[in-house]
Amino acid sequence: MAAARARAQNLRRELERHNRLYYVVAAPEISDRDFDEMLRELQELEAAYPELATPESPTQRVGGEPLEGFRSVTHAVPMMSLDNTYTFAELREFDARVCKGLGVESVAYVLEPKVDGVSISLRYERGHLVLAATRGNGKEGDDITANARTIRAVPLRIATDAAVVEVRGEVYLGASAFARLNARREQAGESPFANPRNATAGSLKQLDPKVVAARPLAAVFYATGALEGLAFDTQTQLLQSLPELGFPVSRLWWECQGIDEVVARIEELQQRESELDYAIDGAVVKVNSFRQWRQLGATAKAPRYAMAYKYSHEQAQTRLKAITLQVGRTGVLTPVAELEPVALAGSTIARATLHNEDEIRRKDIRMGDTVIVEKAGEVIPAVVGVVADLRPPGTAPFDLRAHAGGTCPVCGGDISRDPAAAAWRCENLDCPAQIRGRSEHFVSRKAMDIEGLGEAMIEALTSETRVEQTVDDGLFGVRTDERMLPPAVRDVADLYALTAEAIEWRRPNRAADAKKQTLKLATKLCAAIEASKGNELWRLIHGLGIPNVGEGLARKLAQELGSLDALMAADEEALATIPDVGGIVATSVREFFSLERNREVIEKLRRAGVRFDRVERVAQTANADGFFFGKRVVLTGTLEAYTRDEAQEELRRCGARVVGTVGKTTDVVVAGDAAGSKLQKAQTLGIPVLDEAQFRRRLEESERS
Question: Domain of 495?
Answer without folding.
Answer: 432-533
